[in-house]
Amino acid sequence: MLALTGGIAQAQLSDVTQPGDTIVATSDNSPGSEGVTNAIDNADTKYLNFDISDTGLTVTPSVGLTVVSGLALTSANDGPDRDPTTFLLEGSYDGANFVEIASGDVADFPDRFYTNHLFFDNAIPYATYRLIFPTVDDSTCCMQIAEIEFLGVQAPGDVTQPGDAIVASSDNSPGSEGVTNAIDNADTKYLNFDISDTGFVVTPSVGMTVVSGLSLKSANDGPDRDPTTFSFEGSYDGVNFAEIASGDVADFPTRFHTNYLFFDNATPYLSYRLIFPTVDD
């Protein structure tokens, strides 16, 4: 269970990336000393790409899930015509499927090693980011950038932990695949033969929490057993529950793949009931 507390927009924005993070260029069409790692090295080196248009990078911050709502772009040492003039920022959980976060113009850089800041609305955490510069300022050579900062905050973490009070929707499970496996920080599995309307109630030992997201990891086998819908409720007494969110669960493309579900919620609760009304046939 992934908890995302309110107030992210008011938090202090800082660079969520750091030198050494996993970073992949849009192509290898760069000089050996001016490769993509120079874009995130906290120095005035530069990343240069001879492809000119639709150049950029994909980066996975090592801090984990983050909420990015800004970019800081620093122009390189020479060739103002190589400066990017537009951008496209996308987010992903698996590094393969991306969703657009923001796009638009990049203001002119009035000087070399000048930093432009771009801000946009985003409250969704992602694990990986792809930043593309579709156009540059009329260069016939290349695109170049000295430094890129992804401005945001680290997403709040899991409010549950192994040992929290957890009760299954029924006892119709094998002895070794009971409900405690659902929150044990391991790749064991919770299996329930009831098929429909299965799930559990959990009371996080940390006390009252605000949950606005879930992370669901598929089990080792039987893709037809994967949940396809969810209903999520909160309670103060473990008896009377109020709906927080419900909807579809995306297909799990592989075993032990994690899907993320996010929703609006600013109300704290003591206990949560998560039900999976349907599975994949």
Structural write-up:
This protein is mainly β and 281 residues long. It has two domains: 9-154, Galactose-binding domain-like (Jelly Rolls), CATH 2.60.120.260; 165-276, Sandwich (Jelly Rolls), CATH 2.60.120. Helix content is 0%, strand content 36%. It has no helices and 18 strands. It has strands at residues 14-15, 22-25, 47-49, 55-60, 66-74, 86-92, 98-105, 115-119, 128-133, 143-145, 147-154, 165-168, 198-203, 213-217, 229-235, 241-248, 258-262, 271-276. Strands 2-4-9-6-7 form a five-stranded antiparallel β-sheet, with no helix packed on it. Strands 12-13-18-15-16 form a five-stranded antiparallel β-sheet, with no helix packed on it.
Keywords:
single chain, 281 residues, Jelly Rolls, 5-stranded antiparallel β-sheet
Lateral strand order in the biggest sheet? 2-4-9-6-7
CATH homologous superfamily of the largest domain, by name?
Answer: Galactose-binding domain-like
**CATH class category of the largest domain:** Mainly Beta
How many helices?
0
Number of strands: 18
Beta-sheet strand percentage? 35-45%
Return residue spans where pLDDT drops below 50 for at least 5 consecutive residues: 5-10
How is the main sheet built? 5 strands, antiparallel
Q: Distance N terminus to C terminus?
A: 24 Å
CA-atom Rg in angstroms: 22 Å
Share of helix, binned: under 10%
Q: Please give the domain count.
A: 2
CATH topological fold name of the largest domain: Jelly Rolls
Class from secondary-structure proportions: mainly beta
